[in-house]
UniProtKB/TrEMBL annotation:
<feature type="domain" description="Methyltransferase">
    <location>
        <begin position="236"/>
        <end position="303"/>
    </location>
</feature>
<dbReference type="Pfam" id="PF13649">
    <property type="entry name" value="Methyltransf_25"/>
</dbReference>
<comment type="similarity">
    <text>Belongs to the class I-like SAM-binding methyltransferase superfamily. RNA M5U methyltransferase family.</text>
</comment>
<feature type="binding site">
    <location>
        <position position="240"/>
    </location>
    <ligand>
        <name>S-adenosyl-L-methionine</name>
    </ligand>
</feature>
<keyword id="KW-0489">Methyltransferase</keyword>
<feature type="active site" description="Nucleophile">
    <location>
        <position position="332"/>
    </location>
</feature>
<feature type="active site">
    <location>
        <position position="332"/>
    </location>
</feature>
<keyword id="KW-0808">Transferase</keyword>
<feature type="binding site">
    <location>
        <position position="261"/>
    </location>
    <ligand>
        <name>S-adenosyl-L-methionine</name>
    </ligand>
</feature>
<dbReference type="InterPro" id="IPR041698">
    <property type="entry name" value="Methyltransf_25"/>
</dbReference>
<feature type="binding site">
    <location>
        <position position="305"/>
    </location>
    <ligand>
        <name>S-adenosyl-L-methionine</name>
    </ligand>
</feature>
<feature type="binding site">
    <location>
        <position position="211"/>
    </location>
    <ligand>
        <name>S-adenosyl-L-methionine</name>
    </ligand>
</feature>
<protein>
    <submittedName>
        <fullName>23S rRNA (Uracil(747)-C(5))-methyltransferase</fullName>
    </submittedName>
</protein>
<dbReference type="InterPro" id="IPR010280">
    <property type="entry name" value="U5_MeTrfase_fam"/>
</dbReference>
<dbReference type="InterPro" id="IPR029063">
    <property type="entry name" value="SAM-dependent_MTases_sf"/>
</dbReference>
<dbReference type="InterPro" id="IPR030390">
    <property type="entry name" value="MeTrfase_TrmA_AS"/>
</dbReference>
<keyword id="KW-0949">S-adenosyl-L-methionine</keyword>
C-alpha cells in the first residue's frame, strides 16, 4: 500500500507502510512465533490476513486548526494539527464522513482546542463504522458549554450523513493528551451502533471497546467458537468480555456463558445483544481477576482477552491452580502473552494463530488454545 502522508513524512504511524502485504504478514507471523517461543505441543495455523487498506472500524481523529480550516488527524511535535482525513486505513463510510464533519465544525463555529494556547473546545472526533456503513460519531469537548450549539446543529449533520445513527459528546476537561474523558452525553435516542461481526450482532454504546478491524474480528470470534466447540465445555467464562463478541459466539449453540467486564457501557451493550439473540449469556460488571477468584467452582473453559498488559500473575495463577480445563487466550501483545503462558505450566498451548488486526504496523493479535495436562 502507498500513502502520501507517509511518503511526505507527515505521519509515520504505519511502520510497515510501503512493504508488500504478503511479506508483512509472513514476517509478522514469524516474529510472533518467535516471541511466543518453543512450546512442545503447539501447532500453529496459517495466519488470518486482512484487507490491507480501509479496514479500520474506528477512527480517533485529533481536531486542530481553526473553525474555518479545521484539521482532522494528529498533532505535530509542537501540538499543532496535522490533517490526515484521507488516511487509507479508515473505513469507507468514515472516509466519506471526514469532509462532512470538517464542514460541520465550520458551520457550527466549534473552535478546535489549541493545545499550546490551551484555548478552544473541540479536542477529538471519534467515528465508529459498522460493516453496513452506519456510523457513531463522538465529539470530545473540553466542557459542556457548546453542547447546546451542537444539539441544535444535529439535524443538518443527519441530513449530510444518512448513515449516521448515534451521536454523543464526551467531556475531557483536563489538559491531557488522552483520546477521551469519563463523562458521556448522548445526543440521540439511539444509544448503540449495531455491528454484525462474525455470527452475532454487537451493540456498542459510546465508550465501549470494539475490535479495530471487523473482517479480522469476525475470523477471530469464529475461530475461538470453533475451538470452544471442540473442547465442548458445559460452562464458559469470558473475562474482559467487552461488548460480548467471544461470549455471544460461545453461547450460540445453547451453552451457558458468563461474561465479566469492567466497563458498564460494554456490559449494557452485551446484555442487549444477548437479549436480542435469545442466548443464555449473562454479563456482569467487575474486575476479571477478583471475579474469577470469588467463584465457588471453576468453569470448564475460560476465554481471556485482556488489554496489552496481559492477564498478569494473579489471574494466571488462579487459572493454573483452579482446575479450569481449557483457556482460549486472545492477546494483542505477544510479549505479555508469552510471559502469561510461562505462568501456567499445567495449561499447555496446543493451537495458535495470528489474526492480522493491524496491517501496516507491527501490532499483532494472537489467539491461543491451552488445555490442561491429563495427568
Ligand atoms: C482487548 S478489550 C477486549 C474486549 C472484548 N473481548 C472484545 O472482543 O471486544 C479488553 C477489555 O477489557 C476491559 N478491562 C480492562 N481492565 C479490566 C479488568 N481489570 N477487569 C475486567 N475487564 C477489564 C476493557 O474495558 C476492555 O473492554
Amino acid at each position: 500500500m502507498q500513502c502520501d502522508y507517509f511518503d511526505a513524512g507527515v505521519c509515520r504511524s504505519c511502520t510497515r507502510m510501503g512493504e508488500p502485504y504478503d511479506a508483512q504478514l509472513a514476517d509478522k507471523d514469524r516474529r510472533v512465533r518467535e516471541i511466543v517461543g518453543d512450546r512442545p505441543a503447539l501447532a500453529w495455523s496459517a495466519p488470518f490476513g486482512s484487507p490491507e487498506s480501509h479496514f479500520r472500524a474506528k477512527a480517533k481523529m485529533v481536531v486542530g486548526g481553526t473553525p474555518n480550516a479545521p484539521t482532522l488527524g494528529i498533532l505535530d511535535a509542537d501540538g499543532h494539527g496535522v490533517d490526515l482525513r484521507a488516511c487509507g486505513l479508515l473505513g469507507p463510510a468514515t472516509t466519506a464522513s471526514m469532509p462532512v464533519l470538517a464542514r460541520f465544525i465550520t458551520d457550527t463555529g466549534l473552535r478546535p482546542y489549541d493545545v499550546p494556547a490551551r484555548t478552544g473546545e473541540l479536542k477529538n472526533i471519534h467515528v465508529l463504522e459498522s460493516a453496513g456503513g452506519e456510523l457513531m460519531v463522538r465529539f470530545v469537548l473540553r466542557s459542556e458549554g457548546q453542547v447546546g450549539r451542537l444539539r441544535r446543529s444535529l439535524p443538518a449533520l443527519f441530513d449530510a450523513l444518512p448513515g449516521l445513527r448515534v451521536v454523543s459528546v464526551n467531556l475531557l476537561p483536563r489538559h491531557v493528551a488522552l483520546p477521551e474523558g469519563e463523562e458521556e452525553i448522548l445526543l440521540t435516542e439511539e444509544t448503540t451502533l449495531p455491528m454484525t461481526i462474525g455470527d452475532v450482532t454487537l451493540h456498542p454504546m459510546p465508550g465501549a471497546f470494539v475490535q479495530t478491524n471487523s473482517v479480522v474480528a469476525s475470523g477471530l470470534y469464529r475461530q475461538a467458537a470453533e475451538w470452544i466447540d471442540e473442547c465442548d465445555p458445559r460452562s464458559v467464562l469470558d473475562l474482559y468480555c467487552g461488548v460480548g463478541g467471544f461470549a455471544l459466539h460461545a453461547a450460540r449453540t445453547g451453552r451457558a456463558v458468563h461474561g465479566v467486564e469492567v466497563s458498564t457501557e460494554a456490559v449494557a451493550s452485551a446484555r442487549r445483544s444477548a437479549a436480542e439473540m435469545g442466548l443464555d449469556a449473562r454479563f456482569e460488571v467487575g474486575d476479571a481477576t477478583a471475579w474469577a477468584a470469588s467463584l465457588p467452582t471453576p468453569p470448564d473453559l475460560v476465554v481471556v482477552n485482556p488489554p496489552r498488559r496481559g492477564i498478569r500473575a494473579r489471574l494466571a495463577s488462579w487459572l493454573e491452580d483452579s482446575g479450569v480445563g481449557a483457556v482460549v487466550y486472545s492477546s494483542c501483545n505477544p510479549v505479555t502473552l508469552a510471559a502469561d503462558l510461562d505462568r501456567m505450566p499445567s495449561l499447555r498451548p496446543v493451537r495458535a494463530r495470528l489474526f492480522d488486526m493491524f496491517p501496516q504496523s507491527d501490532h499483532a493479535e494472537v489467539l491461543v488454545l491451552l488445555r490442561r495436562d491429563a495427568h
